[in-house]
Amino acid sequence: MTMDELKQLLEQIIDPTVNKTLKETYGIKHIGYDDEKDVVTLIVSIGKLGGDGEKTIRRQIARVVKIDCGYTGIRLQLEESKIYNSITKKDIKFIGIISGKGGVGKSSVAANIAYRLSKKGIRVGMIDADIYGSSLPTVLEIPHQNPNYDDDKKIIPIEKDGIELISTEFFTDPGQPVIWRGSMLNSMLSHFFYDIKWHSDTEYVIIDFPPGTGDIILDVKNIVPQTKMIIVTTPNVSASHVAVKAGLAVKTLGHEILGVIENMSYYINPVNKEKEYIFGKGGGYKVSNTLDTELIAELPINRPKYHQDLYEIDEENGKIYDDITEFIIYKSN
């Protein structure tokens, strides 16, 4: 019997800790054979180590290798799968905030959406996936600090105003740029999804994407394909043009687009109370019409009264963000 044939038999075994076959979980990580000792070597990933589940699968694997296939011995190493104990397998709503280009206020929009969700008593987490240009700690006014770890070596996210946040800024020195290649980006992003100890009752995770359509969007597609997207643009023609490209990219990847938010739409002149369209007009409509989706909101240019970037419910933008979160809750249920 070849190792490929043995692997096919082993893949039919059900991992009782997740009730899926080892083929479904891609649980066979390594299979080899020592022909001198007639011993099969295996590395197998399961949902959870310990308890009756681990004992059961050890017996099943040994039965296939030694009894069904007739090999003399087996060296088996079991690993706990990060995926099946992560937020990616929980009933959590992932909302991605994307833009075509930088400078449109994407991170501010993401933070305010999370803030209004938390004010509604909803447990919310944030993943700062803008690895090179992470800014959410600054937006949320979180001083630089390194996260702690729990007894299982899981990273505990930093919490502020009821929002749990994980960001590359917590793993670098203050002001230090991130100069990484694509494989390192993927590794850090995997940590954010698989190695973080989020609250057990987390309902929403807001993902702040980098501008454009690079590696991060592709990686998130593989990790949480159920992510629903909101596109942020400004009225500016060039910003809306690139936002359409970002929208078409995520549609191609199969993500649902919830709608478009036009930021910095207008300024209320304090003298005559008229709207002044400083950055042009109609960019959000152009993006939403082209992508056949909704224009969720038009946010005016304002400075928050109480915070650096976050708005309270008694401010005009705070009321608009409250409406945005109601829209998100409705569309994501």
Q: Can you describe what's shown?
A:
- By secondary structure, the chain is α/β, with parallel strands linked by helices.
- It contains 9 helices and 17 strands.
- The strands form 5 sheets. An 8-stranded mixed β-sheet has the order 10-11-7-12-6-13-14-17, with helices on both faces. Strands 3-4-5 form a 3-stranded mixed β-sheet, with helices on one face. The protein has a two-stranded antiparallel sheet with strand order 1-2.
- Helix 3 crosses helix 9 (316-332), helix 5 packs parallel to helix 6 (215-223) and helix 7 packs parallel to helix 8 (283-290).
In helices, the fraction of residues equals 25-40%
Largest sheet: 8 strands, mixed
Radius of gyration, taken over Cα atoms and rounded to an integer in Å:
24 Å
Number of helical segments with 4 or more residues: 9
Q: Detail the poorly predicted runs.
A: none
Distance between the termini: 50 Å
Summed over residues and divided by their number, the pLDDT gives a mean of 90
SS strand fraction: 15-25%
Strand order of the largest sheet: 10-11-7-12-6-13-14-17
Overall structural class, as computed from helix and strand content, comes to: alpha/beta
